[in-house]
Design brief:
13% of the residues lie in helices and 41% in strands. By secondary structure, the protein is mainly beta. Strands 1, 2, 5 and 10 form a 4-stranded mixed β-sheet that branches. A 4-stranded antiparallel β-sheet has the order 4-3-6-9, with no helix packed on it.
């Protein structure tokens, strides 16, 4: 079929196809927003940790919780998102122990514990959600 067409007609058809392809992609960009706010536990700001949003695209988006409990998560796709929060802290060594007193070839990892109930760190159990818009605010007071 294309062999019978003239070269001008071929260029015209290709040009039209190119324009159609370009226009079909207009407006298909992923729209995103940010989620910011504060996390408190028992009425007091959570002094560190991570907030994770499982967004409408099925991907995780993270933000650091600052010492005043504030956080910001950028470039999150618009729509419903599940939320979980973790806040782990290293346990101090037992009182009276000295690393110099017991020589060891292998150092032991520090024990950690959670400042908040651990179910808040599970997307399936936390019960936390947010509707992500261009500029969303999420205030959490965990109990």
């Amino acid at each position: 079929m294309f062999a019978r067409m003239g070269w001008k007609k071929m260029i015209g058809i290709r040009g039209v196809l190119l324009v159609v392809l370009l226009l079909s992609g207009v407006g298909c960009g992923r729209r995103t927003g940010q989620v910011s706010g504060r996390v408190c536990y028992a009425g007091r700001p959570l002094p560190g940790g991570t907030i994770l949003l499982l967004a409408s695209d099925g991907k995780p988006y993270r933000g650091q919780i600052e010492v005043d409990g504030r956080f910001r998560v950028l470039d999150v796709p618009l729509g419903e998102a599940k939320v979980c929060v973790t806040s782990l802290i290293e346990s101090p060594p037992p009182v009276g122990s000295s690393s110099a007193a017991v020589p060891s070839r292998v150092s032991q990892p520090a024990a950690t514990y959670s400042r908040i109930p651990t179910y808040y760190g599970d997307l399936g159990r936390s019960g936390l959600t947010v509707t992500v818009e261009e500029d969303s605010t999420l205030e959490l007071d965990l109990k």
